[in-house]
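Input record, target 12 of the design panel.
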């Protein structure tokens, strides 16, 4: 498979790195994320493996708050709350191309938006439920699910950063007053990653480190 060429056999060198997932049991978990903000933006960079078969492809899930996934039918979905109301994008991200994906939720009016590469893909209305005590990245709930590809630059913000089309970011995210957690994932080795905001840690199960520069659009 395409992804197998991306895995590093050991620690990657200094510089840009990311996490590569090859389906279950590969998983990254952020424990104790706190209470869900009344407004939020969840965003990341990714590169999906075009050789992966059709299955639910989980990107980031905070049960009760949001689920960012690609469904079995190839539709990308950012759902908020327990009722599953979602903003969607009808094209697969498993095309071997580097993408920026962002989901936003505005608690003032319940608007959910999904953006792919700076373009507004869809909107809906929903309301979050009770927040789980962990955020899962690339984690499958069943053997027939799983993320296959690379994930990088994960940022959760307590504000709606995007309401319409915007220029796709060209450099790493910055920590600011609205940043809840920010994982650059440049550690390149080990079973944990640390948020640039401090106070949050990601625990990595089986996923591998790779050299990766999202802004150059290449893996090395």
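The sequence produced for target 12 reads:
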């Amino acid at each position: 498979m395409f992804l197998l060429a991306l895995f590093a056999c050991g620690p990657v060198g200094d510089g840009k790195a990311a996490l590569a997932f090859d389906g279950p049991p590969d998983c990254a978990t952020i424990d104790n994320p706190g209470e869900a903000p009344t407004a939020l933006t969840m965003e990341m960079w990714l590169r999906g493996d075009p050789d992966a078969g059709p299955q639910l492809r989980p990107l980031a899930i905070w049960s009760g708050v949001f689920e960012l996934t690609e469904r079995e039918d190839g539709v990308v979905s950012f759902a908020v709350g327990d009722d599953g109301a979602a903003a969607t994008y009808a094209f697969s991200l498993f095309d071997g191309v580097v993408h920026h994906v962002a989901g936003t939720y505005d608690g003032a009016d319940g608007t959910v938006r999904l953006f792919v590469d700076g373009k507004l893909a869809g909107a809906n209305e929903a309301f979050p439920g009770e927040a789980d005590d962990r955020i899962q990245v690339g984690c499958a709930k069943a053997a027939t699910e799983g993320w296959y590809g690379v994930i990088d630059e994960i940022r959760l913000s307590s504000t709606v950063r995007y309401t319409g089309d915007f220029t796709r970011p060209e450099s790493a995210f910055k920590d600011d007053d609205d940043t809840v957690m920010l994982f650059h994932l440049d550690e390149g080795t080990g079973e944990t990653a640390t948020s640039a905001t401090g106070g949050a840690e990601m625990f990595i199960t089986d996923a591998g480190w790779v050299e990766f520069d999202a802004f150059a659009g290449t893996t090395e």
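Residues 1-10 have pLDDT under 50 and may be disordered.
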